[in-house]
Amino acid sequence: MNHPHRYRVDVVWTGNRGTGTDGYRNYSRNHVIRVPGKPDLAGSSDPTFRGDATRHNPEDMLVAALSTCHMLSYLHMATVAGVVVVAYDDSAEGTMVTEGDGGRFTEVVLRPVVTIRADSDSDKALAAHEDAHHACFIANSVNFPVRCEPRIVVSSD
């Protein structure tokens, strides 16, 4: 059965330096992302596009959304498979190309390193990534490839 879920986000542009957008170089790309009941996120554009490098940009957040969605799906699938995960670290990377006045992502590669308890099955731990990929809401919502290059480490504890 289809169960709709809604997510509310408020975005407020804070980059008016006094003259609005009267020139491409005259305004800041800074903004605040507000989600009810959660801390604000300071946003901007990528520094390549005149943004503030100290703030989150949409491209970083898209890669982060894919990485965290996969992680959360993976932890569930690992639990269902009887695999005990004791650590999970991902170094995800997205590739975007610019085209005319816009651009698009061409792929995102997830590189999770998953540490499992010694009595867990490494093959099941690896297979859980494929299940997680198919379950990930965000990966199922994008129109570019999301590849996963996992590494499984068995804990020595």
From TrEMBL:
Top-rank lineage group of the source organism: Bacteria
Transmembrane segments: none
InterPro entries membership: KH_dom-like_a/b (IPR015946), OsmC/Ohr_fam (IPR003718), OsmC/Ohrsf (IPR036102), OsmC_Ohr_Peroxiredoxin (IPR052707)
Protein name, UniProt field: OsmC family protein
